[in-house]
Structures are given as C-alpha cells and as structure tokens.
Amino acid sequence: MLPMSKTQRIQLWLDRLKRHAASQLTVADFCRLDQISVASFYKWKLRLSPSVDSAPSVDSLPSVDSVPRVDSAPKR
Q: Are the CB atoms for 31 and 41 separated by under 8 Å?
C-alpha cells in the first residue's frame, strides 16, 4: 500500500470527524470501532477545526491599558 498524500490524509480525517458527529457514539467507542487512538482523534479534530482558524489573534485583542478599570469597592 502506498503512503497517503497530505490531501488524502486530511480528507480521511474530515470524513472520520463527520462520521463521528453523525454516529452518536462516544469518542472512545468510535475510536475503538475505527481502530484509531483517542489522542489522534482529538489532535486531528483540533487541527481541522474551523473555529481555530477564525479565532481572533492575540494582536487583535484590546490591550489591558485600553480596558476601563472597574473598582469593586463601593463608593461612600
């Protein structure tokens, strides 16, 4: 068997993640049936997660100095 290309590997994992989402199985049960490790499942899920790509970068967050300070002590 020839090694998979990067594109093939990504497609394999995208398909696995879709099958898991539709399966209603726990991650552990799905991985056992698919003969993959739970660690690999979560690694690929994180790697292929669209929310990771769309998350704001640290540079786009406001600096601590620009956020107004709120005192917790009541004023008298």
A: yes
Quick one: pLDDT at residue 50?
78
CB atoms within 10 A of CB 22: 8
Structure tokens at 7: 């594109």
Residue 17, classified by CB atoms within 10 Å of its CB into exposed (0-12), middle (13-18) or buried (19+), is middle
**Per-residue model confidence (pLDDT) at position 62:** 63
Token pair, residue 30, equals: 């799905």
DSSP conformation class of 76: -
- The rounded distance, in Å, linking the Cα atoms of 58 and 20 is 32
Q: What's the one-letter identity of residue 5?
A: S
